[in-house]
Structure to design on (640 residues):
């Protein structure tokens, strides 16, 4: 007789008895014995057990270890009473030399071999489904009476001895407005895989056919649902398959062992509050970060958004700036309407996107002093180098792209920055002229193939931006196009490359990437109707001085990578936390001493202040010692 009653309300022991005596006609255990933990099962020869345990600890997102048995022990007293691992899973898989050679409903025929084997019980995402449903979040696989969808990814696990494989994930479609609730509910449940490891486009995980899961059943999303992926214990099956041991067993995907342990109380374990932020629409991609980290980054954004006009009393303003304000016909810092260009959370979203990038292109250089040689101003390069230093420390590939005529200048600046300890290593320099032999797509992608981009993220900081008429203007409305290479084309082309995002950092609206705020520039910035950059970036960071934006990006990347919640999401819950590198990352942060030394390097090479064309220790007419050093200290203060 087959049991057909409600399985949700049954106690685990009752469900196990039904399974043991083949009284259930179902393909998976999702939704059974609600409120109790379920477990993935891996059974290996005792000679492999120690290394597999190390593999679990090294990849505890997909393989949270609940219990390891002794050889030949078919029970697990800390997880359940009156259980027998030979009979208490709906279905088992048999692996011989890495190949799945069959499925069984009982392992009793292998009792002799099992005497020399060790059973591993690993946490399962079925355990958190009740917690998710309590929040009013639909669990589509339960609604559709199907197994959850499981996919192989291209994300490698951390290998241990003969155990190596790629991560396997489960997918549940979640309504967009419920994403944060789901993350909040699952994040504390570490023994049930914890928070999602990916939210958004499946292709970013290397999943080629979303409609055809590798394990389980296809689950149909509803309109407005977002694919959400959790690390999956089936990863253990991939590991034992690749290990190619003579004999091993595992539960069949979805056919879990149901324990007597109740699920954890999520609120009791919630030390930090995770937040979900969308950082890309094409492809769709979300990131996760703690609320505490978000607050600190917003504090940084508020600091750099200060218009120096609010600080123009007393000694903070250099005498040359006072003269400039008195006699110059050009716009003068402090009266430029920067506050009208501000966009909330652009620093946060830009830095989340950069944090996920592996390869970053930075461009800078604004030749506003067309009557001087070199014509560059000293706002931009320091911010670019501050970003590059942090990216280097984080292990990302970074290049700087600038005008061909300025390559030698930047080469010398970078070499001296390395000598002074401002950069740990030289940053590769590139130029782009946009001639017939080199299109923007060829520059950004291998063989111009948009599926093979060389860079994940492009950053422009105080880089001359193309206006609507195709020219480039300084703040005085003087056309400097003859000094500017068309690097804008790279940002325009990047919008056609899936997965490549861009950031523009500026302080006046005529910088590359400021196209997003061009209407505000035209309305609130002097000469804005002419000088406004027409080229958009995905993220627009507006600062009182562009260098401040660069410093804030470096500080934000430090905050994100020292955030445990974000770190786990970055590494897909694979490997160990990277917080041991915190000291290295801290050493890459900007400092008053570093920026003072860099400004001295720029002075030595004749790079001048933007507003006054002075070679004194100032940027944009603001004294380094009384204004910029103070800003750097305030930004660093947010980190502590």
């Amino acid at each position: 007789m087959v049991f057909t009653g409600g399985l949700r309300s049954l106690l685990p022991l009752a469900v196990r008895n039904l399974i043991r005596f083949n009284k259930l006609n179902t393909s998976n255990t999702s939704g059974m014995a609600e409120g109790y933990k379920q477990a993935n099962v891996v059974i290996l020869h005792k000679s492999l057990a120690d290394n597999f345990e190390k593999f679990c600890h090294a990849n505890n997102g997909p393989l949270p270890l609940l219990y390891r048995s002794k050889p030949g022990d078919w029970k697990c007293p800390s997880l359940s009473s009156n259980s027998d691992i030979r009979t208490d899973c709906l279905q088992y898989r048999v692996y011989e030399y890495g190949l799945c050679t069959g499925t069984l409903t009982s392992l009793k025929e292998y009792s002799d071999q099992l005497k020399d084997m060790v059973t591993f019980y690993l946490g399962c995402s079925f355990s958190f489904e009740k917690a998710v449903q309590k929040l009013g979040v639909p669990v589509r696989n339960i609604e559709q009476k199907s197994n959850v969808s499981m996919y192989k990814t291209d994300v490698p696990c951390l290998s241990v001895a003969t155990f190596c494989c790629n991560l396997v994930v489960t997918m549940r479609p979640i309504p967009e407005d419920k994403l944060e609730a789901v993350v909040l509910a699952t994040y504390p449940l570490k023994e049930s895989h914890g928070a999602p490891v990916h939210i958004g486009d499946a292709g970013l995980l290397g999943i080629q056919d979303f409609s055809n899961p590798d394990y389980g059943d296809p689950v149909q999303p509803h309109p407005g649902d977002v694919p959400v992926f959790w690390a999956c214990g089936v990863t253990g099956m991939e590991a034992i398959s690749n290990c190619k041991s003579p004999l091993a067993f595992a539960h069949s995907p979805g056919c879990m062992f149901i324990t007597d342990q109740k699920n954890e109380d999520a609120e009791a374990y919630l030390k930090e509050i995770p937040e979900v932020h969308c950082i890309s629409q094409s492809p769709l991609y979300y990131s996760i970060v703690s609320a505490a980290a978000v607050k600190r980054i917003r504090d940084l954004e508020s600091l750099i958004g200060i218009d120096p006009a609010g600080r123009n009393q007393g000694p903070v303003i250099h005498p040359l700036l006072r003269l400039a304000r008195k006699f110059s016909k050009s716009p003068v810092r402090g009266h430029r309407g920067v506050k009208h260009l501000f966009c909330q959370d652009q620093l946060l979203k830009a830095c989340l996107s950069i944090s996920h990038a592996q390869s970053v292109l930075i461009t800078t250089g604004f030749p506003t002093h067309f009557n001087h040689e070199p014509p560059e101003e000293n706002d931009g390069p320091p911010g670019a180098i501050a970003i590059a230093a942090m990216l280097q420390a984080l292990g990302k590939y970074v290049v700087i792209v600038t005008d061909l005529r300025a390559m030698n200048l930047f080469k010398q600046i970078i070499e001296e920055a390395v000598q002074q300890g401002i950069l740990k290593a030289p940053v590769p320099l590139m130029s782009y002229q946009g001639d017939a032999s080199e299109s923007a797509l060829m520059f950004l992608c291998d063989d111009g193939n948009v599926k093979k981009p060389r860079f994940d993220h492009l950053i422009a900081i105080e880089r001359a931006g193309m206006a609507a008429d195709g020219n480039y203007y300084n703040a005085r409305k003087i056309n400097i196009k003859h000094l500017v290479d068309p690097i804008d084309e790279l940002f325009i082309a990047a919008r056609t490359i899936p997965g490549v995002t861009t950031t523009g950092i500026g302080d006046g609206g005529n910088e590359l990437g400021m196209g997003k705020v061009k209407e505000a520039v035209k309305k609130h910035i002097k000469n804005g109707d002419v000088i406004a950059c027409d080229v958009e970036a995905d993220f627009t960071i507006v600062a009182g001085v562009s260098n401040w934006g660069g410093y804030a990006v470096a500080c934000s990347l430090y905050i994100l990578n020292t955030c445990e919640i974000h770190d786990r999401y970055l590494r897909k819950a694979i490997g160990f936390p990277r917080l041991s590198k915190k000291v290295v990352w801290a050493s890459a942060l900007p400092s008053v001493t570093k920026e003072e030394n860099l400004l001295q390097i720029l002075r030595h090479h004749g790079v001048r202040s933007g507003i006054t064309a002075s070679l004194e220790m100032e940027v944009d007419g603001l004294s380094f010692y009384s204004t910029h050093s103070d800003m750097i200290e305030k930004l660093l203060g947010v980190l502590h």
